[in-house]
Amino acid sequence: MNDKYEMLWRPTFELRASIAWLVGVFVSTYILRHTTLPTGPFYYMIGIGLLMTFINLAQGLKHLTLKHSLQGKPLTFINEKQLKRIAKRLHNEVWLGYGFIWGHQQAQRVYEINKRMRADLFGSQKKRDSQMGSHWIHGVEPHESPIKIPLKHLEGHTIIFGTTGAGKTRLFDTLITQAVLRCEPVIVVDPKGDTDLRIAVQRACIIASRPDAFVHFHPAFASMSYSIDPLKNWNRPTEIASRIATLIKSEAGMDPFVSFSWMALNNIANGLILVYGKPNLITLRRYIEGGVETLLRQTFEVHFKRTMKDWETRIEPYLTRYKATQSTENTIKAYYAFYLKYFTDKYSSSEIEGLMSMYTHNRDHFSKMVASLLPVLNMLTSGPLRNLLSPASTNEESTSDIATNPKTDSSRMIENNQVVYMGLDALSDATISGAIGSIILADLTSVAGDRYNNNSSTRVNVFIDEASEVLNDSMIQMLNKGRGAGYLLTVATQSFSDFVAATGNADKARQVIANANNLITLRVKDGETQKFVTETFGKTVITQIMETQNTNAIGADRDPTNWSGGYGERRIEAEGELFPPDLLGSLPNLEYMGSVSGGKIIKGRIPILTSKINPTLNDMKWLKDRDRAAV
Question: Structure pTM?
Answer without folding.
Answer: 0.86
